[in-house]
Amino acid sequence: MLMCHLLLDRLFTILFLRYQAITNALRRCIISRENHTSLLTDKMNHCFQNLCSSGESINDFFSLQILFILTTVFIISFSDIFMLIRLFNAGQVRFSKNFAIISRMCGAVFSLLTIWRFGYRFSSISNKADDFNSLLYRLMMEDKTNQILHNEKLSLHFTMKREVVFSACGLFQLDFKLVHSMIASATTYLVLLIQFGQLKPDKSWTPTPSTADNLTTPHPMLLTTNN
């Protein structure tokens, strides 16, 4: 699982850098305020479409692996945090002697960082794609020659409104909303488990003499009739 995670992180990092490169190039075109040709923007749009197709192919190929990694990380982090809370409540925490507690804490932190890393990387790619569309639209509006405005490919690009969205087998989108929902779900389950754990009866309780008399079952009353 770790090797797959590192491979995914490397691939999506490269994809993010490519999106960043074409976005910065388009931003430089706007800042320079030169006579923009339709050929330059057409090449940038072609690069953008190729990056979108590459992202979709990577997502489709690793969709099942992403779902498995996120599910495993969520279960591990949830169980580690729950066990740590139980140990803290029981007063059995001894960091100098109990290395299992330290390992659970490290596992919980690593799991949370993995979830955050996935959300950050996917959100960054989507934001860069949105920035490219915004800059291209701005460049089209500021073009005085109207060459970009009358470009059929660029017009088709805005008509299609192609967005960069990643998902895990189509079940949920991969962005910071996923991180928030996973944290909210884990918090809800932890609160429920802690509350149910506190409702267990205390086995050490023994009735006092006064309460023992009240707990005795009364004898049935005998009804007699006079002849």
UniProtKB/TrEMBL annotation:
One of its GO terms (biological process) is male courtship behavior. It comes from the Eukaryota. Residues 1-25 form the signal peptide. It is a multi-pass membrane protein. InterPro entries: 7TM_chemorcpt. The keyword Oxidoreductase does not apply. The keyword Mitochondrion does not apply. It is found in: Cell membrane. GO terms for cellular component: axon; dendrite; neuronal cell body; plasma membrane. Its main location: membrane. The chain crosses the membrane at residues 66-87, 99-118. Residues 204-227 are annotated as: Disordered. Residues 205-227 have a biased composition (Polar residues). Keywords: Cell membrane, Membrane, Receptor, Signal, Transducer, Transmembrane, Transmembrane helix. This is Gustatory receptor. It comes from Nezara viridula (Southern green stink bug).
